[in-house]
Amino acid sequence: MSQEKPWVIALVGPTASGKTALSIKLAQELGGEIVACDSRTVYKYMDIGTAKPTAEEQAQARHHLLDVALPDEVYTVSRYQEDAAAALAEISSRGKIPIVCGGTGFYCRALLEGLKMPEVAPQLELRAELSARAERDGVESLRDILRSLDAVSAERIGRNDKFRLIRAIEVSQILQKPFSQAAEITDVPYRIIWLGLTINDREHLKSRIRARIAAQVEEGLVEEVRTIYMRFGATQTIMNAIAYKEYVNHIQGNYSLEEAFEETAANTAALAKRQLTWFRANSAITWMAIDKQNLDQLFAESMIEISKKLSR
Q: Which residue of 55, 193, 253, 281 is 20 to 30 Å from 105, comparing CA positions?
């Protein structure tokens, strides 16, 4: 029996770039199974606003790591690393090729680049103090604190992501070193084929984002957010998720429908920019521009790259 590491295909890139459709086509061609790498599709009931693969799409290829937590839970990167690693091992044990698909760079690094975060216990008093400050002075005031401890993490962590800002401050203070330097890199038991979807025309990406949000609203996004909010309340998970926090604000009377849409579009575009910045640091990724290519062209380009790697 061969002792070589099993192959894993990683398909990454910004939101609204078409990763889901391409991953399904690759899974069908290769007899593979898809492992989601998305910090929002792990949550049950959060379907439309996360652009989670539909029931029809999930029927076309087997998916893993969808709907594994509830919206009142905090699903950590460590938990994802453990759950997804188990899924990869199980898929590989059946002779299938796992296709890790998503845009959450932190999850991707933990799973496929061996990023291991230090085990720092929650500092409840510090968390309460920082949460109170965020309520008083705004979430961005936490970024000012983090910037003095770790400028790199302060730039990487997304807008209004209170939980990750607090965690970065917590780890930096306890370890007496920047959060961005606290992780260790360990070996991973896979051979990885990295594929990335990108876009050269940022305005085209913004247009795709706006079209997708409009379609989500038509599909019942506002009703989905209202149902989750009424059942679980304004949980940390919901208020950290783009589309959900904006439409919760609409439900609370803070935004009109138009304002919620525009805020969602702006925050999604900012997320896409951060995702591209994160993934471009990985020199192993073969990038494919989606600007003027349709799904069949991207599939053909992907298969050429995959065939080259598998034949080595």
A: 55
